Amino acid sequence: MPASCTSCMGALQVIKALSYTSEPLFVQTLTNVCLRTNRVVPKVCHGMIEEQAPIAQKVARTMEVDGRDGLLFCAAVMNSCPYPEVEPWTLDFPKEKPSNPKQFTSTGETMTVLQLSDWHVDPSYQEGADAICNDPICCRSASTNHSNVIKPASKWGEYTCDPPARLIESMLKYIPTIEKNISFGIMTGDVPPHEIWSTLPFMKTKQIHDSAYALLHSHFDEEDKINTPLYPAVGNHEAAPTNIFPLNSSDIPVDEQHDYLSLGWLYKTLAKNWSGWLSGKPELFKQTDTGSYVTRPMEGLKLISLNTNFCYNLNWWLYQRPAEKDPNGVLSWLIDQLQESEDLGERAWIIGHIPPGDADCFHDYSNYYHQIVERYAPHVIAGQFFGHTHLDETQIFYRGGQQEASEAISVAYIAPSITPYLRNNPGFRVYKVDKSTFEVVDSMTYMADLDQANTWTDEPNWHLEYSAKEAYGSSIAPTTETSPLTAEWWHNVTSDMETNIDTFEKYWWHRGRLSPKTKECDGHCRSVTICNIRAGKSEDRCDYYNPVLFTHGSYHHHSDKIFNTSIQQWPAISGEYKLI
């Protein structure tokens, strides 16, 4: 076992021993350790530990830190240990997959669907504040030495900051100028800013939600504006403390001081803010314990919104023993919904925040989710849509673990973020969707060139960045005007990337919306990126510590992620904390 793994497991042993002390002593000790690293600014140490420690203390007491629990934590969070093998679990399905499922025939007509994601609006953004600072996010008066401002924040945003509300409102005003008839929109999570050290009291986060959704309703509910329903999903930053979503079985402190940890306030807030867009029927509304729900935007299509934070490796409750394979029954509920759709002969879309194929999703949960996709795709599941990474990406799901075009059965679209943090241009997505099959016919990304913000006069220069069909169509991945972008087609695009550097370069630069802050991608980075596109299961990724790869001298070390904005593995790379 490498020294990094031994050190991590040893540190967990110390934390477990400390967990039996009083909460104030536990918080103070961890805060002192954080401060001594000199890698985290003091206010972040104090705030982050104070908010997260009550959960960590409860969970650490139950963890088998010298066994699988500790190994899983050090692999998933710190990337310092070999990832443990997936615990086998074969899901039970109500019926076998039909040998002759219902076929859906295209009429050639399309509709338009909008996807927004990860806007992370910052109420504290201040024009003229320093965009270069020691805090995790800048452009705030509190993080600025006003006598020595290095880079004044523009009116519209900066690459090192979460955006001001005016950037988001400008986007909402722009959308109807390019799409007059949007059938519906989806919002795949993360409204509050990346201020993970200061989310409490929870009323502070609640107020951010209320203000954000009031702005959305003012655009989506007005005839002369976007004027269409919006269907949201729950992001990890929706909670206060950030990332913390309890299970029904979680040992939540019951005293009044910690009552907010149940997240009852959040689910009630979301239910209120989403009202008017969703059906109010109790059997279709699962807000009480997960924030998941189903609705039917139109006849023949069911939209299933999943709270995928129950697979998130920074949700500390998931480490509490005994570990649950299906936290809060979300997966079994998903099966029920998909089975109903199969029985009714309708299609289904799945939306969520954290992509099941992302490095942040536990391998076990991703494996189980993938079994569901294999069972119900492609005849029921017509599309999957996620956010979280802040990048413009796709992930492909395969039948039987065979990464071949003929076995590709579903594709997940990961939307670009509205926030430019870190080092991406702000963007949003528009899909052209077949009205009969509900399959994506084209995916179009819009963006604004934030490096030109100081030249904008009235509004940002929102514009079409690219069409997937036009950018990636080739002799290897041919298209027609009406043909859908199937999982097989996307696999062929990755094959073209392997042999045609120009195709890969398009994908690489589109990931960050042509940001001038994006770093070049070398040959190793290229192979890792293509591998990750094909990883509908997170265990198939090439950017985590895989002991098999490690023994063959091919340790993939997240080179693409650290240099291209997502910092999802900062603990392993730079000793910092995850913010996304």
UniProtKB/TrEMBL annotation:
**Pfam families in the record:** ASMase_C, Metallophos
Q: Where's the Calcineurin-like phosphoesterase domain?
A: 111-390
Q: Which UniProt keyword terms apply here? A: Disulfide bond, Glycoprotein, Glycosidase, Hydrolase, Metal-binding, Secreted, Signal, Zinc
Residues covered by the Sphingomyelin phosphodiesterase C-terminal domain: 412-534
- Extract the InterPro entries matched here: ASM_C, ASMase/PPN1_MPP, Calcineurin-like_PHP, Metallo-depent_PP-like, Sphingomy_PDE
Any one annotated GO CC term: extracellular space
BP GO terms, sorted: sphingomyelin catabolic process
Q: Where is this protein localized, as stated in its record? A: Secreted
Sequence positions that bind Zn(2+) 2: D190, N236, H353, H388
Q: Which cofactor does it need?
A: Zn(2+)
Molecular function per GO:
hydrolase activity, acting on glycosyl bonds; metal ion binding; sphingomyelin phosphodiesterase activity
Disulfide bridges in this chain: C5-C81, C34-C45, C133-C138, C139-C161, C311-C361, C521-C525
CDD domains from the UniProt entry: MPP_ASMase
Q: Where does Zn(2+) 1 bind?
A: D118, H120, D190, H390
Quote the cofactor binding remark: Binds 2 Zn(2+) ions per subunit.
Q: Where the protein is mainly located, per its record?
A: secreted
Q: What does this protein do?
A: Converts sphingomyelin to ceramide.
Q: Which PANTHER family match?
A: SPHINGOMYELIN PHOSPHODIESTERASE
- Which family does the entry's similarity section mention? Belongs to the acid sphingomyelinase family.
Q: What is this protein called?
A: Sphingomyelin phosphodiesterase
| Native source species | Absidia repens
- Output the lineage of the source organism: Eukaryota, Fungi, Fungi incertae sedis, Mucoromycota, Mucoromycotina
